[in-house]
Amino acid sequence: MGVASAGALAGARRGLRYRERQWLLGYALIVPAFAFVAGLIVYPAAWGVYFAFTDKVIGKPEQWVGLANFAYLLQWPDFGLMIWNTILLTVVAVAIKAIVGMTMALALNEDIRLRSAIRGLLFLPWTVPSFVAGLVWRWLYDDQNGLFNWALLKLHLISAPISWLGTHELAMPALISVVVWKGFPFFGIAYLAGLQAIPQDQYEAAQVDGANVFQRFRYVTIPGLQHVMLITVMLSTIWTANTFDLVWIMTGGGPSNATQVFAYLSYVTMANGRIGEAATIPLMAMPFFAALIVVMTRYMLSREQEG
Amino acid sequence: MPRGLFARHLSRRAVLKGTALAAFAGLASACNVLPAVGGKAKLTVWTDATFAPPSDDYQTKVMQDWAKEKGVDIEITREPGDNVSKKLQAAVESKQVPDISQADDGRYTRFQPSGLMLDVSDMFADVGKQWGGWYDPAVKLATKQGKQMLMPYSIDSSLILYRKDILDEGGVKEFPKTWSEMFDTVKKLQKPPDLYGAGFQFNKPGTDSENTFSMMAFSYGAHIVKEDSKTIDVKTEQMKAFLTELKRSWDLGIYPPGVTGWDNSGNNTALQDGKVILIHNPASPLVWFRDNKPDMLPKIGVSGTPAGPTGKAFNSAYIRDGFAVMQSGDQKRIDLSKELVRKLYDKDIYRQWIQLAFPAPAVKGMEDHPVWQNPQRKGFLDAAKTGVIAGYPGEPTEANAELGTQVPFLTMAIRMVVDKWTPEQAMDELDKVARQVYSKYYK
Amino acid sequence: MAVSAATVRSHAASIRAGRRVKKVVTYGVLAFYLVVVLIPIYWMIRTSISENSTLYGVAIEFFPTKLTVAQYQAGIVRNHFLDFLGNTITVAFLTTLFTLIVAPLAAYSLSRLRYPGRGALARSILFVYLIPGSLIFIPIFILMQRIGLLNSLLSLILTYQTFAVPFCTWMLIGYFKGIPMELEEAALIDGCTRVGAMRRVLLPLAAPGLVAAAVFTFTLSWNEFLYALILISNNSAKTLPVGLSNLVRGDIYLFGPMMAGATMATVPVMILYMLAQRFVVAGLAAGAVKG
């Protein structure tokens, strides 16, 4: 029994055909959003896709080069490393953000002291402009006057400063730590809002049935949150994979290419005015993300009814 | 469904709606939301925010005073170089450009082919006559196909900035002549982990080092192209000798551990914090010391870039500030823009600006300026006279500019010290990349 | 009997112990997160109230010894931070307002109604996210120039819709889907129209989600940098993130005023979020009556 049957009743009462009414309403409601977005993005998107197949450089007429830009990228010696870095950064950062966000939301949903203040404070990283966050963290990680090295030296845990951002092994974890720091409030706040919408009586009912904490989490919290979880993970995956500002400020893809990722390479290429090659890079990643979107949204769009 | 349950929500929403509408009306009327319509034509100027803010403020004031006198509206946007470059990309591509744009020679090489930078050859000749001629690098960098589309204003360079006090203490009377001597000297004087020998970046965002390492390579007789500006000539014995010596300096342990993660501010802060003996940089740390640690300023020595094994030394020279009058399609605005740029070369204005900013002027007639009695600034004037320009030993070509964005010399250095490649491997990669880039321009 | 009473007692004790463990874990987790979150924030604020001469050097001062308001003065007087802040507020507020008009309608349509092409429409809105702003800022500039909106905040408000609407729409689909349909069905049977049921039943129940989506949209537009840099050239319409970037002077970072500006940019948003949360909690308390 879904909306369909209830709607059918209402439709039948008004003597109108239910299906067409629903179609019309559906289209009418989506038109403003779709028109807004499509109107603004169709031209820029076509612009970008077209130039990916040309040798376009800022201020000069372009020539069609077919797949030459793709071929050039593929033969780049660090291409494989870049793909690996992008996947590593995205998967690890999103996983940590989701776990931290979930625990934060669960803790803040409890009846605790100073809840409002703590909620506000934990939201702070999300409100700091990216490049300021990048600069502050860069400073904290600095090998000369960074707080972390200063503290570790003071505590005699190390004898010489550690080059957090300058070594192959540490640069990526350091970068991930900043991406997580900046992004976890998105998960935490989104989950908290989802938790607040789960009716308290569902928990009480589960408790009466003898469900323990983990069972309540599994059978009440997760079902109530699953759509929000899916959408946050999907959005955050796309954002994280497209992170260029924090990479730019923290490491610039270095040392060597240890933190080089798709989005930053595209950004740098664009900054150097080579539009053709810069446009090719996101286009190469697009099939992967498109597949991700299709898979993750299928579940959200197809389920007519919740269990 | 009992309606009453939602009465409170509805009323809350009604209140919210009211507030929102009121706020919208208030904000929308705050004029910036909608574009300004009509009004008299405005001159727009895009300029760079430099490391010497007083010189920026002075220039802005000169422009505003001129505009007031002329009864012209003027909008001066001053942004960091990266920002101006990005704005220019969009502006040039849409042909909606500012009336005057500041450009260094890299930006000039990249944006001039669009045809939106107007011919200012007459003004160039006129100013040259007034000031007794232009320095060589200014002429070479500003001239394309026999014309000038850029008015050079300053020539800057990177020099060695070093701790004179530490060299004195170590009994080093004169700054070492060659790269090898310099590396060995600082190796002796350094006291890691508190004080390291040299602060050169081995990281791509640290583009200062591209300048450093290319000068070192030139002094070893190495280069990317031959004099014809077209023939790639990377894989030479000289290049190998340069790379081998650079690798040796790394193995000496004279660089702080973080240099592989530094950006362009890394070497500045290292010198400012007293963590390194020397860096290779434009004058920005001197400005910083003057404003923040004046007692340290006299302890900083400035030396020309060291020489190679044959005794030949190279300093870079580039146009840091230059002005392009751009195609607005409105002859009146173009004429006014030229007038404003010309104004900046007035005797007193130009001299005062040089006093406040730190680079050398692009013209010869200012060598009597008292600032050159300061030995810290004198070196920058010498570099302006004799420095080598982009594209050495050839011309500053577009191909060279494109390859330059990939920081070729710095990349070789990084390959050796971070990725542990051999000099041969690093050279091989550059050879391949250079050929690939040049093949786009020279078929 | 006695055995059973003992079982009950031990059961009660284990519940109490469980509660205590839960409390310790809850506070422990939050304390840990707070420390990690606040170290960089503290560094930012500390820098904004320290004198320049103490910001660099061999000795790091964790607790600043020489306090000053000079950095804020420099930010406000020299760098016009208050003007930029006003513009930023205007843009973020209006962007959020526009988005909150169109996105809930779209989300309702996509999560509650069935019609041909729904999936394609829903996904195509999301595909916008695959086109990076770092690539298309030039065509956006060209577009805004053609429609004559360059140098106006409206150009930003419109451009921000390209990320705000897809974001908000999909966040709301997530929240709407989490709300059981029975309540709306009841309203429909009672004679409500669909739009009426959405307005009176769904939206109030989804209030926490709406507020969260609004807060995120607000902060996304609040912190946007690239479009704001490209589309605005006159100082009177600049936004704060661009203003902050102006404190990078070549290879010198003017950290003092920059961190003062960052603090000014950050704290209002936090307060806004706390107020919004209060609104949600009040809304939930009111809604709980029906439970």
Describe this structure in words.
The complex is a heterotrimer of chains A (307), B (443) and C (291). Chain A has helices at 3-14, 18-51, 68-74, 79-108, 115-127, 130-141, 147-154, 168-197, 200-208, 213-241, 245-250, 262-271, 275-302. Chain A is mainly α and 307 residues long. Chain A has a single domain (77-306), classed as MetI-like (MetI-like fold). Mean pLDDT of chain A is 88; it is low at 1-7. In chain B, the strands form 3 sheets. Chain B has a 6-stranded mixed beta sheet, with helices on both faces. A 4-stranded mixed beta sheet of chain B has the order 8-9-7-10, sandwiched between helices. A two-stranded antiparallel ribbon of chain B has the order 4-5. Chain B contains 18 helices and 12 strands. Residues 1-10 of chain B have low confidence and may be disordered. Chain B has 3 domains: 1-30; 34-149 and 319-386, Periplasmic binding protein-like II (D-Maltodextrin-Binding Protein, domain 2, 3-Layer(aba) Sandwich), CATH 3.40.190; 159-317 and 394-441, D-Maltodextrin-Binding Protein, domain 2. In chain B, helix 10 crosses helix 17 (408-417). With 291 residues, chain C is mostly helical. Chain C has 2 domains: 5-48; 79-289, MetI-like fold. Chain C is 75% helix and 1% strand. Chain C has 12 helices and 2 strands, in the order αααααααααααββα. Chain C has helices at 2-48, 70-78, 81-112, 118-127, 133-146, 153-177, 182-189, 194-205, 207-223, 226-231, 240-245, 255-287, and strands at residues 248-249, 252-253. Chains in contact: A-B, A-C, B-C. At the A-B interface, loops of A face helix 3 and helix 18 of B.
